[in-house]
Fold each of these.
Amino acid sequence: MAKTDAPRLDHFFSAVAARLDLWRDLARAAQAWAARPASRGDAALHAAASAALTALLPLEDFQAYPGARVMNAIQQRVTGGDAMGTARLVQRVSSALMSRSYRSDAGEFEPEDDVAGPERAMPAAKTEGAARPYFEVLFVVPTPPARWAAHAQQIRKLRRPEDEFVYEPVFVGSFEDAALAVILNTNLESVVIYDGFPYESARDLPLLKALLSSRLSGALKDRAAGADGVVLAKLIKGFRPDLDIILLADKKPDAIISDPAAEGIRRVFYEAEEPLEIHFSILSGVAERNDTPFFNNLKKYAAKPVGTFHALPVARGKSIFKSNWIRDMGEFYGANLFLAESSATSGGLDSLLEPTGNIKKAQDAAARAFGGDRVFFVTNGTSTSNKMVHQALLEPGDIVIADRNCHKSHHYGMVLAGAQPYYVEAFPMVAYSMYGAVPLRNVKKALLDLKAAGRLDKVKTVTLTNCTFDGHVYDVRRVMEECLAIKPDLIFLWDEAWFGFARWSPLYRPRTAMGARAALKEAFADPAYLERYLAQEKALGADLDPKDARVLDTRLIPDPRKAKLRVYQTNSTHKSMSCLRQGSMVVVADEEYHRHEQAFKEAVFTHASTSPNQQIIASLDVARRQMELEGYELVMQAIQLAIEIRVAVNTHPLVSKYFRVLDVENMVPAEFRPSGLKSYTEGGATWVDAALAFREDEFILDPTRLTLMCGTAGFDGTQFKGLLAADYEIQLNKTSRNSILLQTNINNTRSDVANLLKVLVEISKGIEDRLKSGGEAAQKAFAARVKSLVEDVPDLPNFSHFHDHFRDDPQGTTLEGDMRTAFYMAYDHDGCEHIKLMSPEIDKRILTGPPLVSAHFVIPYPPGFPIMVPGQVIKADTIEFMRKLDVKEIHGYDATLGLKLISPGVLDGTSTQPKQKKAKPAAAVVGV
Ligand SMILES: Cc1ncc(COP(=O)(O)O)c(C=O)c1O
């Protein structure tokens, strides 16, 4: 980033990312200055170094490292014309920031170039041997800045060799600066607030002011203006719920503790400072998050001399390490993997099926971290988590409003539970052969239609995918509010398989299941919300009339006295956090959970393996620890890298001729974007514009999910995925007809971005060369290929309807169907028929009947959603789509046999085969 582009402090996200760049800029400028012999002096280079330093200074006020002393030393060297000295010190700081060595080497905090041993004034950040984890603590104080250095020294004196961690203090003196520090300093783990600080910052921060005013409503705004520590604590918790907050109040602690806004403050001290107590509170708060009860015990277990007489030969590894033939397995994985394996549930290992010990503790810690009331660890992926939730919540005959494009585990879950899906359609994105997310209007309409048909009482759950594979994120709060207004006891299952990490970004969190649940819990307790509801009730009535068009058009809110918050989230922890494959969680926040407690036990017994992998459980525990301690920084980094990829690809002169990362306006139709945001990177958009879209738009695009158009380079998605994997060692997991999906996560680095761009440049050059050397013929062929991929795209078929045989009320207007009965009809081979996809018989049947009724789920990859479900009547558009599909992998379809259909005779009762009876309701069907 050029010096003139120095970010404004309140361009929060770019400011965090820019810090290291600005240090690099300064290091470069200082080196260039130092490279000139002093005698010649170079005013321009000196000025450049000075400008680079000026750009950086405001950001450094919020960081403990390198700290005021080092920054002052650099400033003095720059002002005093000491080019060599500046270059040396800047280089040292810049390297320490890159390598993070300052976290373990206290000498880095010294302004001298070469300080050793006792001269290091700062207490060593190391115990004997291993470095202690390092973090920073924000102190919000009313004292003048001149006193901060002395205060910092007092704090450092509290350190004891036996402390588990070491921290450095950072000081700010106002409400606004505290808010800014919490956003900008990713090393913070705790905040100590001394009441009595002013509200306003001395800095010019218009965007921060706008952000704060949107976050602080009504009474809180007035209180914040009075620099109330409780309100600051609440604001900070809103940004980063993991941070511990310690308040030193100038009023009595009991008054504070009964203040609802004070929820979440870890400790309140009254007036008189108790420095050592504060120190202990800081350390114990971090220790709590750092604790991994299951993993810790597993490590202890691995070190015990255990004799095993159970059925798991790899446990302890003796069959491997003593083997003549498979020792390489042991060498490859290392001894600990085997030492830490056991089929026992004792010795601190606990039982996943009925946890009461360390797994329970680890699950409780996960519930705290993910914002739920309880958590279930699952070791067979979210595919299993979803089936567990469906089984536990649904009885045969219950209706589920479900996105037809949801993951297959939901469809199968409904088959198992005997629930009837009422499929709602996502908006299609025909140009890219993919679907978006389900407009709220469609969900409301389904509920209202069911209400009009007198079947609303049958509706138990709504299940939606947040975010979708391609990155569409719902306005979760609004969906729940409007649905609860129609049915106040609805249960929501948010499939956040891809989105578990989102909790650790203040931008995303309100759009997660648990973030929205927290916001609604607070809203329902607010008397102003009830007033708003009563106004709505006056206009629309207490019992909403499904035939009244205003109900569909109004942004509804529920009666907070009646609405129940019943929210479930499933997440593939392994997809977005540091967890081993298949690690998944079910997060529960259901005020009526007691109704399902036993059913959840049954669901665990049904689906969980009786031999769960200890390492997956441990990694769930550790993944949670990491996110609670550094999730904020890591997620911020993943977002920033995604933004860098977007800019790099879309502005590269050669690459952008053939490739493009689709932007907000391509992925989210304008009708769902009242904020008007079109792009995260173009048109001068700031993060405040993005924050507005995140607040207001019906759907937003998760910036970390990058749909890269490759059809414009003449590749279909599958072909391009293969090319990247085979020739460039780049892996990805989703493709469409003309695009691939890339994503950044907490694992990516800037080198990955650079490598991706390099590869795209190489491929683009290859295309250019081929087009040049192949002449007109090659160019024509290329244009035709691009046209076929980009323009000749098949229409996406909607769900048609279930055959009347599977509808409780064939005369009725509602769409739900008994999919389980249809599913089991496929088991009766004599009651089914096969017809080849290309045969004229299919077209004839579509025109003149009898209807074609699918016996199976048919799921092509890509796009990965079921274009047929059991019992569905197949229409011409689905056949046309399937005929045009050029993918090889179609689950549920055998090309040599053709489509498997339920025979018409079975459905209308004319078959010589006995007519299938509807499957008997059962509490749970296992083993499909
Ligand atoms: C939306 C969604 N839900 C659930 C799953 C299943 O998750 P897992 O792979 O952890 O079983 C996936 C997998 O891709 C998914 O995309």
Amino acid sequence: MSTSTSPIMAQRYRTGDQLWVREHNLAILFNYIWEANGPISRSNLTETSGLNKSTVGSLLAQLQTWGFVKEVGMVNSGLGRPGVMIDINSDAGRIIGAEIGVGYISMVMTDLKANVVWRRRIEPPPDQEKQPQADVLDQAAKLVEEAIREAEKTGNRLLGIGLGLPGQVDHATGTLLFAPNLGWKNVPLRDLWLHQFNIPVFVENDANASALGEGLLGNARQIDNFIFLSAGVGLGGGLVLDGELYGGAGGFAGEIGHMTLVPDGPQCNCGNRGCWETLIGPAAIVDSVRQAAILGNTPILMSLPGVNGDINAIRMEHVLEAAARKELAVLHVLDEVGRYLGIGIASLVNAFNPSVIVLGGLLSPAGPYLLPRAQREVNARALAAARGMVKIILSAFKFDACVMGGACLVLREILNNPVAWRPDAAHGLPGENIL
Ligand SMILES: [Zn+2]
């Protein structure tokens, strides 16, 4: 938790000398090129940015010298000289997006256009799901080392690592403060990895990272107000308000999975009762389906290979398979989950007036079974004006949402501060200003 002297206050009124203006304009131009999502002409950039032609030329030359953008040929508009097209240079470097989840570690390496060029996922056998923290950290570090070797092999420099974690993260120190479903407390992951790998490291809550990724690369591109709902073992939320990830006073905002929906409801891993997570999280879904199975109401589910009549073997994937085969008791459970999903979303719609709610993680494949009921609840409960503006959609990345979000943590920093990531910058700390 930050203390009374906040560094944010010092930056808030930063004055704009010439150098600052140039850095700022470099970042703006770089962001416009990214948002174009494909080649964009110089004249289009001049028009979009509102900067004059010679400034755009000089800034582009700078970004090109650093290797972040490249010319990709000419476009002939039919009138006058053909214009030069500019695009992001995907080979400017590599980014690692990582996730330490409950029962798995997932990692991707992307180029600067966020194309995945390498990926790994480790899942321990079901009987070893609760591994000691040291073992998990060791396995994660080995994957990072493998990614680094891969980048070296292809001669690409590593620009940074973005790590998503299922808990509260202190952004000032990059420490995981509390992850209820991992049972971890106070793990200084940014410092650990920074010293281990000497590459800029950014650590974020998994749902926040996923929200960032969805906004930069996925189905919420250029949407300024949206809420990302992410279901893994728990239920997390990422709030993007007015175009920015909303952190609240201490960076802990978005823990909407722990809103109380039923005062004396089921026990939650956070210590409270009746949290939203205990009603619509995958663990809750599997539990309710097991209850139906005990009553003998799920013959299709029980005969699935992988279940074979063993109630304890039922996992979310089996639930979805049985739902696809129209098992009534399973569809009934999912309908009830959809009801609580809708009740929670209605409150979020009233509180934040988002234009989009994105369902991610396990909510995404379950979406088709949950959405009809959820939508009815939202229609019945949210206030009319806000309700009419919101769409509920599914994430573009399914189980990759967090790792792609991790890559975006780094990407966002590079786009907003290219000068700190120029090839000759000897930085070792995230976001350190070199000039
Ligand atoms: Zn809770």
